[in-house]
Amino acid sequence: SSSVYASSASLYGSIAATGSERYDPVAASMAGSAYYGQVPNGANGGAAIYDEVPLDDYLRPHRPAPLAPPPLSAQQIQRRLDKMRQQQQQQLEGAHQLYAPVPAEAQREQEKLQQLMLELGSAAVEQDVRNALRAASGDVQLAMRHYKIDQLTRLGVAGRPQCEQALQQTGWSLELAAEVLLQQS
């Protein structure tokens, strides 16, 4: 295999053998062209390609940087912490309420909620049913499906898409769908 490399080396020749010029000279007709001018070399004492940037105030900031804010007092820190705790508490209290209706719609939502609670039976949790009803924008049938999918998902046996598919296969029967999912796992 070394003979193959030796023959290819002789085919291409050595770069050193071609001299210091690695490229063909520019044709005489193009020599005066603006495209092929000689680039000055700084080592030969030629002019620099770029001008020096003048030392001028143009690049300096126009005004001093603003001062750091004064350190907070213990009282200010305590007030901020209390305010943050209060906001977190309000978020936690409001987290169970999903898309609360306007007061005029509250009575109609309550009627739909009672209807769903009757259909779902005594095991249904009112807050979960209310959240399903609000997620379904008041559509009772869709809320029923939301609630059942949520209940199956809480079992932790399968993800939401698999739970919905199992419910569709069993005619939206929560018990049958749970059996199907438990058998598959």
TrEMBL record:
Domain UBA span(s) in chain numbering: 141-184
Top-level lineage group: Eukaryota
InterPro entries with a match to the protein in the record: UBA, UBA-like_sf
UniProt-listed Gene3D superfamilies: DNA helicase RuvA subunit, C-terminal domain
Protein name from the UniProt record: UBA domain-containing protein
UniProt gene name: Dmoj\GI14589
